[in-house]
Amino acid sequence: MRSRSGVLLAFATAAAAFAPAQLQQPRLSSATAPALLPARPLAATRPLVATRPARHAQPAMFLGVRKALISVPVLYVLMSLNEYATHRWYQHEEFNRNHAFNRFFQRLLSVLKNRPMRLPDGRANLVKLKGGGHHHAETYDDMSLKKDKRWRQTKANSPRDSGVCWAAAASLDSDIARGTAFSWAVTGMMTVQMLPSALPVFALLGFGLLETLAVLLPGMLVHALVWNMLHPPMHGLPPVKLKYGAPSWPLEGLRDTAYFKYIYENHQGHHVLGGQANYNVCCPLTDHLLGTYVPTATWVKRMRKVPGPEGERWGIPVEPKGVPQAPIIAAGKATERDFTPTALLNAPEPA
Ligand SMILES: [Zn+2]
Ligand SMILES: [Zn+2]
């Protein structure tokens, strides 16, 4: 319920942002004091006139043109950074590797909580986050999700299984969208997660709290609408309904536009490359800045063959026209390996 009201608040704030500011009531006065007028019927007296009507004839915007224009690119950059960081370092648990950022937290916890820097066997005592559910392990390179019982009986037992990428199939069964959609709760959490960056950045640009929320809340709603239109159907799952999260239907008519084709292929490459590139989904930018963007022409050569109809799937992917198609294994030729987890085979070795 709380998340629903959050969405209502988003709509209300968005509407307020672009609604006319309250017009100043014109001060009405009769041109002449009634007592000085000759006696005649009221209708015949001179009409009441507004003393200063002209300057307020045009509605004023809550945000003003300058702020409205600057808010869009600024919010886009913040959302791109946030989407990237969440996906790469939290969902794919790359935070849990031995890099300077993790070592910073190792030292911090060592000082604050006397946490040992080394494990008994001498390895670094990494600080570990448990990432959210993710759907990589069960994704074929045609983007459909394996439902095959050979896969579903597989324990995620690769030496690199520690990541959520290898979440066993059963752990996704409790979610109708199998971890591919933003529920209202997730949209709310992501909105809160944006606050530590959005509030100070917009404050520096001169935005008040309400003005910032008037930009942020609709922005997060659009982000969820884009994700929920693109992502569950691209993995062959049904469109998202309003009672679950931002619905898929409002943007379905845009599926074949250049933007949706670009982000579809970008995310397809993310899966083909074992979730180790193209971390942005709806807001491409940060991959380009950090050198993790891999173009379609490169990853398309790495697409693995997928089983034909004998490999059972949750559904057929819904895709924009013209996106790359995975080669199909001839009938009867698929091996056990083709039905079981292969999601990280294309990934570079961990550092
Ligand atoms: Zn995906
Ligand atoms: Zn991923």
What descriptive keywords fit this protein?
disordered C terminus; two-stranded parallel ribbon; Fatty acid desaturase domain-containing protein; signal; mainly alpha; 351 residues; two-stranded antiparallel sheet; 40% helix; binds zinc ion
Care to give the gist of this entry?
This is Fatty acid desaturase domain-containing protein. This protein is mainly α. The chain is built from eleven helices and four strands.
Secondary structure elements and their pairing?
Blueprint: H1 2-18, E1 28-29, E2 49-50, H2 64-91, H3 100-113, H4 149-152, H5 169-172, H6 184-204, H7 209-234, H8 258-272, H9 286-290, H10 296-299, E3 306-307, E4 328-329, H11 336-339
Residues 87, 91-92, 134, 136, 270, 275 line the site of one zinc ion (ZN).
Organism: Emiliania huxleyi (strain CCMP1516)
Keywords: Signal
Protein name: Fatty acid desaturase domain-containing protein
